[in-house]
């Protein structure tokens, strides 16, 4: 068996993917049996091209910078991997005497992780493979939540709160903020945390788990306009109609990913055209996963823990699994790590359960707020208004 470790990042970056890298590197440094630590440059493509970054002797000062750096310090990708690529990766892994592989990513990456594990096993190779969870969308199954989500949730909650304060100060329009999340509404739902102190929360929230009904949406807005002149709506980019079609035609599609059209502008335009009221759309987009100023400290520490745990697991002989979180308690907040078979995670998307969505289908329940609140870290800053 090789004595070297390889770390591969996959999919969209988060505010804490580098914290998991930090945790894995710190843990690996304490194991003299590991001779070399490699990072795949820009994901699986780096393995195929033999573009491996030597991470063995990075100084402590530079290593610590990972904790305040968004994106992926070694690079990531959305490469599609076919059987011939797995064959090639195994050749490279053997050439560089790699005995341990850590895949850090979301659904697609865990699929690659599982297939790499099975390919190695079928060939009788003693190469240990382990998954580190990462997704701002929080749609990995089994685990209570995933590193990356807490920071994205904090960003959207704080951004919503600030937007609500702006609209409250100049209450002359409907503002629709669009959030990330193809099929899972976790980030969209987190906007509700903005309203915990009363006056600065969103008025309506629309999740991709429920079919979007244009008439109901317009009625919701119309009823609110009878009570107030400034309205904030948070809507998922992945909203679909009752037939499962995106409400805005996608601008680009791949085998797995859909690049949605501008949902916020579409919903704002509906208000203008159908209700004759001023409206506008907002779209934070990639800022929601790249904000260091709104990184959740809880998310960061759990990301480090996930990296450490994955590294320890492969070195102890575990393989074909992913690190997951189990919630022990919400008040006080406490989690523990455990390992789940990669088969249970591969391409199994976790969406918002019914008990987290309100009866009207345009908001969330108290149980969701209690579940989500600990993940964003300290309380959001309080605000005030005199024009109530």
Give a short summary of the structure.
The chain is of the alpha/beta class.
Overview of this structure, please?
The protein is an alpha/beta fold and 388 residues long. It folds into 2 domains: 4-135 and 293-344, Rossmann fold (3-Layer(aba) Sandwich), CATH 3.40.50.450; 149-291 and 351-376, Rossmann fold (3-Layer(aba) Sandwich), CATH 3.40.50.460. The protein contains 12 helices and 13 strands. It has helices at residues 17-29, 44-48, 60-64, 83-95, 107-122, 149-169, 186-190, 214-225, 263-275, 287-290, 297-315, 366-372; strands at 4-9, 37-40, 52-54, 98-105, 128-133, 174-179, 204-206, 231-236, 252-253, 258-259, 279-282, 321-329, 334-341. It has a 7-stranded mixed β-sheet, sandwiched between helices. It has a 4-stranded parallel β-sheet with strand order 7-8-6-11, sandwiched between helices. It has a two-stranded antiparallel sheet with strand order 9-10. A hairpin with a 4-residue loop joins strand 9 and strand 10. The longest helix is centred in the middle third of the chain and has 21 residues, at 149-169.
């Amino acid at each position: 068996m090789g004595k070297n470790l390889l770390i591969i990042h996959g999919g969209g970056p988060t505010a804490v993917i580098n914290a998991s890298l930090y945790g894995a590197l710190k843990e690996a440094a304490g194991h003299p049996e590991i001779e070399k630590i490699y990072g795949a440059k820009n994901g699986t493509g780096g393995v195929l091209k033999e573009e491996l970054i030597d991470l063995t002797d990075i100084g402590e000062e530079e290593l610590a910078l990972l904790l305040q750096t968004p994106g992926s310090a070694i690079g990531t990708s959305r490469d599609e991997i076919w059987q011939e690529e797995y064959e090639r990766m195994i050749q490279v892994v053997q050439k560089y005497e790699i005995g341990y592989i850590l895949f850090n990513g979301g659904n697609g990456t865990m699929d690659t992780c599982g297939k790499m594990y099975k390919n190695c096993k079928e060939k009788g190779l003693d190469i240990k493979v382990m998954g580190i969870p990462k997704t701002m969308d929080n749609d990995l199954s089994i685990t209570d939540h995933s590193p990356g989500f807490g920071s994205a949730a904090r960003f959207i909650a704080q951004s919503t709160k600030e937007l609500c304060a702006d609209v409250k100060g100049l209450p002359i329009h409907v503002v629709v903020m669009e959030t990330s999340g193809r099929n899972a509404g976790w980030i969209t739902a987190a906007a509700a945390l903005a309203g915990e102190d009363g006056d600065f929360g969103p008025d309506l929230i629309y999740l991709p788990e429920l079919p979007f009904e244009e008439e109901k949406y317009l009625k919701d807005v119309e009823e609110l306009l009878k009570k107030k002149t400034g309205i904030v709506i948070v809507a998922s980019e992945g909203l679909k109609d009752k037939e499962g079609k995106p409400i805005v035609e996608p601008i680009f599609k791949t085998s797995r990913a859909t690049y949605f059209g501008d949902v916020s502008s579409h919903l704002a335009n509906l208000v203008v055209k159908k209700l004759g009221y001023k409206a506008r759309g907002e779209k934070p987009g990639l800022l929601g996963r790249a904000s260091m100023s709104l990184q959740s400290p809880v998310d960061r520490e759990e990301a480090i823990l996930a990296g450490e745990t994955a590294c320890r697991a492969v070195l102890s002989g575990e393989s074909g699994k992913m690190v997951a979180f189990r919630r022990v308690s919400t008040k006080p907040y406490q989690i523990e790590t455990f390992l789940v078979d990669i088969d249970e995670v591969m391409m199994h998307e976790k969406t918002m359960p019914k008990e987290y969505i309100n009866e009207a289908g345009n908001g969330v329940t108290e149980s969701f707020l209690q579940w989500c609140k600990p993940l964003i870290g300290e309380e959001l800053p309080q605000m005030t208004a005199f024009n109530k």
